[in-house]
Design a protein that fits this description.
- By secondary structure, the chain is α/β, with parallel strands linked by helices.
- It has ten helices and five strands, in the order βαβαβαβαβαααααα.
- Strand 3, helix 3 and strand 4 form a beta-alpha-beta unit.
- The chain is elongated, with a radius of gyration of 19 Å.
Length: 215
């Protein structure tokens, strides 16, 4: 028999991990090589592994580090790693964020066991697998994202900084959250002021709210 497909589980609910592990281990071609209850723990465990898992099943909402940011960091370190987002949430912006972070597929926890296996096998081949409703959410999210930024030509990173400014974050807090230097944050703020033709951070925050970019 060929080498088994190794899977790593990331979910903050122990019963979910147990259920997934129990089902996946029934497949003779799959093995669960590890599990974590949060993003930081997942990254640490995977960093310490001698052999990487073939695929990570990633929860979206976790208390310490969410699935999108965990995915982004893992893909930055291990570009060939396959990640399938497995979640109960399907907001348009979350689907877009997960795919942009590097997830191959976005699967809802309401999916059947057979469809989950299909998504895992598809991801291993580099083939995105999503339900019709998730695909529609992705399309809507991409359209909204394009419409939100096209009028002033904001980059995705500038948009992230703008939303954090609108949330009242300081440069230091933005630096910590986005894992970039304070100097880089200041550069993004200067670019935002220039592109939006505004004078200060308060005006940027008001601008973001008026555009409807802030929930």
């Amino acid at each position: 028999m060929d080498k088994k497909m190794s899977i790593f589980l990331v979910d903050d609910h122990e019963m979910v991990r147990l259920g997934l592990k129990t089902y996946l281990m029934l497949d003779p071609e799959m093995t669960v090589m590890g599990e974590a209850s949060g993003g930081h723990d997942a990254i640490k465990q995977i960093d310490d592994m001698e052999n990487l898992p073939d695929l990570v099943l990633m929860d979206l909402k976790m208390p310490d580090l969410d699935g999108v940011e965990t995915t982004r960091r893992l893909i930055e370190s291990y570009p060939t790693l396959r990640i399938v987002m497995l979640t109960s949430f399907m907001e348009d912006d979350q689907v877009v964020a997960a795919i942009q972070a590097g997830a191959t597929s976005y699967v809802l926890k309401t999916v059947s066991a057979e469809d989950l296996i299909y998504a895992i096998r598809g991801a291993m081949k580099g083939m995105p697998v999503m339900s019709g409703e998730v695909s529609q959410a992705l399309t809507r999210g991409m359209r909204k994202q394009a419409a939100s930024s096209e009028d002033v030509g904001l980059t995705e990173r500038e948009r992230e900084v703008l939303l954090l400014i609108a949330d009242g974050k300081s440069n230091k807090e933005i630096s910590d959250e986005l894992h970039i230097s304070i100097k880089t944050v200041k550069t993004h703020v200067s670019n935002l002021l220039m592109k939006c033709e505004l004078q200060d951070r308060t005006q940027l925050a008001v601008y973001a709210h008026r555009k409807g970019w802030v929930k």
